[in-house]
Structures are given as structure tokens and as C-alpha cells.
Amino acid sequence: MQPVDPADLALPRVSSRSLPLVENTSILTPTSGFLKTGYTHTINVYQGCTFAGSLCGIFCYAQHNRWITKGRAWGYYGAKRHIRDAYRHDYDQIKRPKRGVPKPLKIYMSSSTDPYLPQEKNLRLTWSILDEMRERPPDVLVVQSHHTLIERDIDPIAEVAARCELWVSLTVETDMDPVPGFPPHASPPACRLDTLSKFRARGILTQATLSPLLPLANPDAFAHRLDKACDRVVVDHYLIGDGSPNGWRTRRTTFAEQLDEAGFGAWNKLAKLWEIRDLLVEVLGEKRVLVGCDGFNAVGLKH
Q: What's the predicted TM-score (pTM) here?
């Protein structure tokens, strides 16, 4: 018996007062900007982010997207409805067109909202998309998260990975928990590395993103943990990776100031990026260490 799909059944019955609902007819959004060279589309099954109050919420790049925030404070705005139907429709237009030839479909999930928010534990919207992808797999899929809840979906992810190039990508910005002077993490960095190891043991491609790079207590030990946990690392710095010249978006937040106040001012400099990159190369090897935008977009090489 197939499990009841919350994306189609339970969600529409929930009061909008307790759970904001977002009407939509499409779930695949054409890429632009930072992700355009590697991906054709993004998927976001939620709007806004529950992790806005955690450490990653301080420097989150999505908070600067006025099309998402619409003047609201950065936070959780709602869950999208009818995402199964939307994915089937969008997919068939791209990969099963009535006219013309199929087009590439390389998906980054997600670009502005983590696919494994706390709401996902019950709503299972990301699970629903993965379930659809068993029959309608993209050419490339990167599942990007800050949370270990992704472990719940290791079986459907493994099934989709058997049908396309799939990367499980977890942000692991630091080895510190907590980082002095900052809010708590969305999930403990050490646990994220354990999660990556579990996916890698299943033969699924794994990627750790040090994005943006945060202060490290023990860089050498961290590098060796990454070596065991993932197939590759993408290291990034807000000065080159927040989608604005010289990191002006991040500088609009309190992030850089908080680093200075906590005694980590050196990590506001690009020199730290290259220092850590060189250390990672020594431990993991040059081919397994990527940098910035080019690193994030290094997918689909077999398609």
C-alpha cells in the first residue's frame, strides 16, 4: 500500500491560519545568476525559511531576494500546494514534449529555501518530489540542505540516484558548535558529516559546501573528517559567493561585524579562503576541492 501523500491530501486540509499555503501551478523555475551555468532549473517546495533565526539565517543570500520576501522580514512564509501535479506538468513539457525534442533537466534543490525544514518532517513535500522523480528523473539533481533530516529519505534518494547524476550536498561551514558570538546551527556540523558518510556508504555522490567559510577551530582535523565523509568539497567566501560585487549583500547584514566582535576578523578576508583551500587540497587532493561559483556548477559533466 502506497503511503498517503501529504502534498496532495493532508496539506490542503490544514488551516491557512496554522500553516500558510502557497498556490502554484509550476514547481520548476529556470535558473539565472549564480547557478545558471550548471543547472537549468531550481525547485523550492517551501517559501521563506524556518532557519532564519539560526546561524545560517544571518548570512542567507535568499533574504535579499525581494521577489521572495515582498518586504517581509526573513522567515518562513508557507508551503506550496499541488507540487506533484506541478512537477509532472513541468517535467513532461521539458522531457516529454508533444513537439520537438526533449531538453536537458538539471535541478538544484533548493536555491532559496532548505528542502528539509522542520515542517518537512510532517508535510513530506520534498519526499513527494523525490517520489515523483522515481518515474520522472532529471538528468542531474543536487539536493542541498543544512539539516540531517535528509537521512530519512536515503532510500528514495538512492533510487533516484540510480537513474541520474545525483549529489547529496550538505552545508558544513565550520567545525565549531556553537560558533562563539553567533546563534545555534540549524543542525550540528558534526552530525551533518555523519549524514554525508551514510549517503556515501550507499554509493551516492556526496558534497560538503563550506559556504560561506566560517572560522575553524581545528582546520587539519576538519579536513580529514571531510576526506572520509564526502566525495568532494566546495569552499566559498561571501566576498566572492553571495552574488554581489565584493560581498555587499552580506555586508548589509551584521555577519562581518559579528565576526570581528567575536575575534574572528581574519575570516572576513579572502586570504582565509585560499589558506583553507590549500589545506583541503593537501588532504583530499586537487580534483576533490572546488571553489566558489565554478564549484557549485560543476555538475552534468556526463550529460
A: 0.92
